[in-house]
Amino acid sequence: MHHLSRVLAVILTAATPVFCSPISASVHETRQSIPCADPAQSQEYISGYNAAQTYHVFTPKWDFINDMTTNGVNWILQGPAFKTWRTLSDMGVDPSLTNSPTVNAAIVALWQITNNGAQNFRALVAGPSNGTVPSLQFGYTAELLRGYAYAVSICGSVPLRGLLNQAKSDSYFTASELEWEGLVGEGWQDVGVIGYVLPV
Ligand SMILES: *[C@@H]1O[C@H](CO)[C@@H](O)[C@H](O)[C@H]1NC(C)=O
Fold first, then answer.
1. Residue range 146-161: average pLDDT?
2. For 74, which DSSP code?
3. Which UniProt keywords apply (predicted)?
């Protein structure tokens, strides 16, 4: 729970506050509680930057390809950020176990949230694996369920860390410790670990 408190503490003091309910008490536990998901079923999530509105989103390349061609959205693709799973069935979770305490303790849903104000802020937050929309405050809404990740460091997963550029109200997520260090060195604020994913 410690890192989630830190996420909230940082984001609540930021220009664009956001709040989500705690989702799991076992985020630092490393005991494996579910079978490992098949890495071959994970997808590479790309960092896409919307320069006109200064925000990042994270989704597989095919999603950007479609949005650019079909909707004419001018994404700048900044490269692979992490690998994770689009659906619980891609993670090999039996649909009847979606709401089980074991699955809820081992997997989080990754929600893209937005605000309804003038700034088109986007961020990722973790919610329960059963897909219940996380509670948000201050005008923030859950926009899209982007995928699922481990809630704990199991099966070779690494922390997916958030960073906030407070001056620009832009958030970024990385599975690379060195990239995280680089951005912290440039003044970005650590907003903590939101889940555990596979490195690219
Ligand atoms: C989904 O999981 C969360 C966290 O375990 C729980 O609080 C919530 O009641 C569940 N939702 C449903 C519809 O069962």
1. 97
2. -
3. Signal
